[in-house]
Amino acid sequence: MPFGAGGTTDVFARSFARVINKYLPNEQRVVVVNKPGGATTIGMSIVAAAKPDGYTLAFAPVGVIEVMPHYKGRTTWTLDDFEPVMSFLEIPVAINVLASSELQNYEQWLEFVQANPGKFTYSTSGGTGGGTHLAMEMFSEIAEVDLRHIPFEGQAAGQAALLGGQTMGVFSIPDTHKGGEVKPLLFLSEARPTSEVYTDVPHARDVGIPFSSDFPMGILAPKGVPQERLNIIHDAFKEALDDPAIIAFFETSGLPIIYRDSAALDRGIRQRSAENKRLLTQLGLIK
User: Fold this and answer.
1) Residues 201 and 101 in one domain
2) Is residue 1 part of a domain?
3) For 30, which DSSP code?
4) pLDDT digit string (tens) for 184-197?
5) If we measure between CA atoms, which residue out of 106, 64, 54, 10 comes closest to residue 227?
6) Same domain? 75 vs 130
7) Which of 13, 103, 200, 275 is most buried per CB count within 10 Å?
8) 155-177 pLDDT tens trace
9) 151: closest CA among 163, 139, 134?
10) Strands 169-172 and 121-124
11) Do residue 80 and residue 220 come from a single domain?
């Protein structure tokens, strides 16, 4: 687990750890070990260097291997040092503003940003050059709008900046804004929260913008794990998706179960990695 205890990803991992033994041979237990730091590179380095026996896995948003290896010197690994096992969730993300904002829908937002290039400021959960920042840069390029990214350390700080009036928006998961102070204007992900509250919020394609940004969460193994062991791991986690406790957890969180097998996950990782490299170069963040 390349994140600290108590965060969204950690909570997901622990929900699986409580039931996964029922679906593994000999009811083997899974222990969640938190190794945060280095923008996930510390935890991912441990997995990449682990013995390829299937007993050490990464439970994480797969975007961590789509972005960080492009920065020279930040990692000792590349995406080729991992075996994608499966993903079970795609994190829904949207452009959000204060509920009290004068920009109450996408049409008003678009009119504002077109009339005021560079004035709309927003934060993301990943900071400058992170996956969410790159997604917004790609969207801006396709939608032909000029937005200004304001980096903060983590999603909580970015949301606090929005609530404090330091930014005009935040690109993040809408369902985290349970106080009703923040509202989504446009989804950029195929996935969206299951809550009916968001039924009327459009997707980028609904407004004529051919763009979608996916943020899968899933299981990665070190390169070299024998295929028969990868199959055991995959099948156990896939079966767990039908466990009543896991179904209830997803329903409570308001997030949809979206399954991708190893081949589909690997294709997506490589496609997004190539696009991220292009954007990082374009932004001058790498050479």
Assistant:
1) yes
2) no
3) -
4) 999 998 888 887 77
5) 54
6) no
7) 13
8) 678 888 899 999 999 998 885 44
9) 134
10) parallel
11) yes
Asked if 247 and 253 count as a contact pair (C-beta separation under 8 A), the reply is: no
Placement of tokens 């678009």 in the chain: 110
Three-state helix/strand/coil letters over 152-211: CCCHHHHHHHHHCCCCCEEEECHHHCCCCCEEEEEECCCCCCCCHHHCCCCEHHHHCCCC
Residue pair 170/159 in contact by the 8 Å Cβ criterion: yes
The verdict on 235 and 201 lying in the same domain is no
**Residue/partner pairs of 69-75 with CB below 8 Å, 24 or more apart:** 69/273, 70/273, 70/276, 70/277, 70/280, 70/286, 71/129, 71/280, 71/285, 71/286, 72/286, 74/38, 74/39, 74/41, 75/41, 75/44, 75/45
Rounded to whole angstroms, the Cα distance separating 150 from 170 reads: 9
At 217, list the tokens: 């969460």
Alpha-carbon distances of 82 from 14, 64, 100, 217, rounded to whole Å:
22, 11, 44, 14
Q: Tokens representing 275?
A: 């696009």
Nearest to 66 by CA among 82, 55, 50: 82
Q: What is the CATH number of the domain that holds 197?
A: 3.40.190.10
**How far are the Cα atoms of 26, 27, 96, 114, 273 from residue 134, in angstroms, in the given order?**
43, 41, 17, 20, 11
Q: 149 near 123, Cβ under 8 Å?
A: yes
Question: Which structural domain, as residue segments, surrounds residue 23?
Answer: 8-91+215-282
Beta strands in the chain (DSSP E): 58-61, 82-90, 94-98, 121-124, 148-149, 169-172, 182-187, 216-222, 257-260
Amino acid making up residue 171: F
Q: What integer pLDDT is reported at residue 224 of this predicted model? A: 97
Name the burial class of residue 256, with classes exposed (0-12), middle (13-18) and buried (19+) by CB atoms within 10 angstroms of its CB.
Answer: middle
Q: Is 257 helix (H, G, I), strand (E, B) or coil?
A: strand
Length of the chain in terms of residues written: 287
